[in-house]
Write a structure and sequence with these properties.
With about 280 residues, the chain is an all-alpha fold. About 70% of the residues lie in helices and about 0% in strands. The chain has 13 helices and no strands. The chain is globular. The chain starts with a helix and ends in a 6-residue tail after the last helix. The relative contact order is 0.14.
Length: about 280
């Protein structure tokens, strides 16, 4: 049965408005990144009168963008890898075993998502400063400290999501692996993890995107040598001028890794996000 015309037109109008809302800022970014700075600072024009790729060249020399890129890549990759490994182990234990405090652990992990991240900023900073004073291990202003910080809000979501995905995997697979001589870890590595690839990829992409674009903690927990991309972009604004065309160009460049990862892994994301919805 065909949908009524009113529904069809409502859907078309809604999708058109949503498309305009999504692509209009992107078009402004692209067009501004291809203009000389004088044209960007002048009255806005939808169609650039002069096109130049100079901003894409200057972004690497105006600020140490390459250094910031490496810092972001190291921090995001390390936090993603650690978050995925710990989440797999914790989710497997919660999903497959019944132990005292299991329900309390699950509720605690999920309840951490209710609090805004800014509440943890000052306590974490003070903890890092005290650890540095007591042990000499400098977590504040280091990549290690930033990785640990990101784990505090990526790991709970990763555990919660993988628990739901592991619950959708039949327990008969575990029993079959044990019959073949595998222990709990062997069953996890050889059977459960391969079957849970979509969920694991979803968790990895979420962790990477969170660490890649985070600004609040990175602005406090880093210094000039460990600054990440999200914070380093503000250096295009100097005391005398703001390089708007370079800001737009740099914003597009730093978005490339996340966009490429999303396009390559989107089929796993859909499967991972919908896992467990139908049993």
């Amino acid at each position: 049965m065909a949908p009524p015309p009113a529904f069809v037109w409502t859907r078309r109008i809604g999708l058109t408005l949503l498309g305009i809302f999504t692509f209009l800022p992107l078009y402004v970014m692209v067009s501004s990144s291809l203009k000389p700075l004088q044209d960007v600072q002048a009255a806005f024009a939808w169609l650039p009168t002069r096109l130049t790729f100079r901003p894409y060249v200057d972004i690497w020399s105006t600020v140490p963008l390459g250094h910031y890129f490496v810092n972001s890549l190291v921090v995001a990759s390390c936090s993603t890898a650690i978050s995925v490994v710990l989440a797999i182990l914790a989710a497997y234990a919660v999903s497959r075993y019944r132990f005292r405090g299991r329900q309390l652990f699950s509720v605690t992990v999920l309840s951490t998502q209710m609090f805004p991240g800014i509440l943890f900023l000052l306590p974490l900073f003070l903890i890092y400063v005290n650890i540095g004073a007591a042990t000499g291990i400098q977590l504040s202003g280091s990549q290690l400290g930033l990785v640990i910080t990101y784990l505090t809000f990526t790991l709970p979501f990763s555990i919660w999501m993988l628990v739901g995905y592991f619950d959708s995997i039949p327990r008969e697979l575990d029993e079959a692996a044990k019959v073949d001589g595998n222990g709990p870890i062997g069953a996890l590595v050889r059977v459960i993890v391969p079957a849970a690839v979509p969920g694991i990829v979803t968790v990895a992409v979420y962790s990477f995107m969170t660490a890649w674009g985070e600004v609040l903690f990175a602005s406090v927990m880093t210094d000039d040598s460990t600054r990440t991309l999200a914070v380093g972009l503000r250096n295009y604004a100097s005391q005398n001028d703001v390089y708007w065309n370079q800001i737009m160009a740099a914003s597009l460049v730093v978005s490339v890794p996340v966009v490429v990862a999303f396009l390559l892994l989107q089929r796993y994301l859909v499967a991972g996000l919908t896992a467990g919805s139908v049993k």
